[in-house]
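Collaborator request, handled under Task 6.
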Amino acid sequence: MAKLKYVGKTVISDTANPKQSLDLANQDYIDSLLAANMSQSAVTSRITANLSGYATQSFANSSMTSLVTPAQVRAADANFVPTTAIGQPLGPVALSSLGQISPSLISAVSTQQWPTPLYTPVAYQNVSVLTDSPLQLFTQAQPYPGYPYVLQITGIMDAQVPLTDNPTVFPQVLVREGSPTGTILAFGYGIGESYTWGNPPLGVQSTLQLGAGTEWAQYYGGTPGFGTYCTATAGIAGWNQTGGDAYAICRCRCLDPVFSTTTTSYQQVSTIIGSPANDNGNSNAATDIYVRMDDTGTYYVRCAVGASAAWLSYSLGGTEVAIGSPITGIGQQTGDVFILNAGNFTTKNLRQFQLFLRRAGTTTLLGTWNDTNNASALGTAYQGWGFGGTTSYTTTFFFTTQWFPAPVTGVTLVDPANPAGGINSGEVVILPTSLAGQTTKTGPTTLYVMLQSSDLSGAIKEVQVSPSQPGLAVVPIPWAA
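Structure tokens returned to the collaborator:
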């Protein structure tokens, strides 16, 4: 088809561009514009050249894939509590400007009661007490705390086991409610090992030595061959006269590996008299108690207990030297227990020696000696102990008579576990019984603190507590009635 030609009105041309009409666009005009435009390839080349060094669309698309998506943001938000939940049911509690919870949100009633602080007695016993049967130490009033309660009781007592013929007992402290026989709310049992005793046997029958000769080391002095200190009757130590009438002495050192020495220089040794000494009342025959002995038996402190007097001396491997003056007016009866303390446990005076007599259950201080010159042996090398006997003799009208010490039926060592607290001491820890087993209290009550021996068979097996380290703490615990 032939090209159409324009046959209409004359087109006014643009002076600057005569081929272009100011009124109409003809075919020639359109063709001329297309010829002047860039090709698609030229455009692509131009874009490539001008945008070189900038991110491409593919790079932008790949980078977008590592960013958090809206779905991920919504899932993470679900793990947090929105602020709109504060103060709403099951939501977080709103706090005041001071960071406090409003009292209106606490469900406790205004009369709610809480455990009262620690409560202890105003005063305890002020002297040591001794008993072999249940004995009231003191009472403690427990006021009403204002709510139903049970009591949690803890504490500590300083207890001792004094000299006794049975070394197996230990103290018991019981805290009872309402009366001396009421419900036990707390208890404390002394640990038996804290009340260590040495009670070595006097051996089987022998007229030559104490028993089999393995329990005691024996050293003789005076006139040799004029008797032996032995167990002529099984279990009883005494003098067996042989060879005539003369002065003789035998000291016996304990060899038992368990308690041949004490843990400190505080010692207590006792002897039990089977019968009074065979003595005319004027001789020096004596039952001897030895303390502060060394392993050779030549360093020691000796207390000689005669029928009417007692005296103290020491040896540093040679001649004995007297300490102080004799104690007179003693006397002896069957079953008497003579007790020598090396060191005063109460005053912590290691240089003081005390002699006690226990007769029919009553213990009496007979006398005291003080080594004021600090001359006797003292220290870890002198913590052995023992006993023995001394004979004497008198001559009247050419007749000589030998006098014997009293026979000994038992000898005992007390090794003080806690010298500061007393003889043979140990702490009794007081613990509460089960709170669930108590009767809930709705008013005031009274506590009775009791002491008793672990052996209540009726024989004299005494225990003791002292006020040196008392302690009792009582806490009322709220409990449903």
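The cover message to the collaborator said: "Residues 14 and 411 are 151 Å apart (CA to CA). The radius of gyration is 52 Å. Please let us know whether this matches your experimental observations."
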